[in-house]
Amino acid sequence: MLNNIGLPGLLLIAVVVLVLFGRGKISSLMGEVGKGITAFKKGVKDGSDEIENDRQVRDVTPAEEKDKA
Fold first, then answer.
1. Is the CB of residue 31 less than 8 Å from the CB of residue 22?
2. Domain range holding 38?
3. Residue 38's pLDDT is what?
C-alpha cells in the first residue's frame, strides 16, 4: 500500500502536516525526537559497556556450599 506513494505524495503529506501543526510545533517536535534518539543511543552504549564489565567470571557459591566440597 505504501509502496506507491512516491515523491509527489510525500511532498503533499509534508505540506498538509506543516499547515496543520505549524512550523514552530514541528521544529520543537523534531528537537524532541533528536533528544530521544540521542538518549536511546547513550542507553544502548551504557548497556553494552555494563555487559562487557559483567563478563568476568565470579564465584557466587554460598560459603556453606564451598565448605562441603
1. no
2. 23-52
3. 95
